[in-house]
Design brief:
With 100 residues, the protein is an all-alpha fold. It has helices at residues 2-34, 37-57, 62-78, 82-87, 89-99. InterPro entries: DCTPP.
Length: 100
């Protein structure tokens, strides 16, 4: 019985975190519409925190998620992503993550 309750609790937390991610995206879009830098930054930070925690609840370690992000950035650079060509955003983010 305890194991079933634990599984239900974990499923409920995952569903709650999914709604948090959607809510943070919504808040981000509203902040972008309003042009509030403070609210944009808060929404982005909240979105990132919820994404990392959701990943952890799904069995993905923070380190593995960081590595997946770095792999994604490397792939974007190799494929000539427009943001890299125009602004070097991909390289800048990759450098930032590697220095952490």
């Amino acid at each position: 019985m305890q194991k079933e309750m634990d599984i239900a609790k974990r499923a409920k937390v995952i569903e709650w975190l999914k709604t948090e991610v959607v809510d943070h995206v919504s808040r981000l879009f509203k902040a972008l519409w309003e042009g509030s830098t403070t609210r944009i930054m808060d929404s982005l930070a909240s979105l990132m925190v919820s994404s990392y925690i959701l990943g952890r609840r799904l069995g993905i370690s923070y380190r593995d998620l960081d590595e997946a992000i770095l792999d994604k950035l490397k792939k974007h650079k190799q494929e000539g992503h427009q943001l890299e060509d125009w602004y070097q955003d991909i390289s800048t983010l990759e450098e930032h993550m590697r220095k952490r």
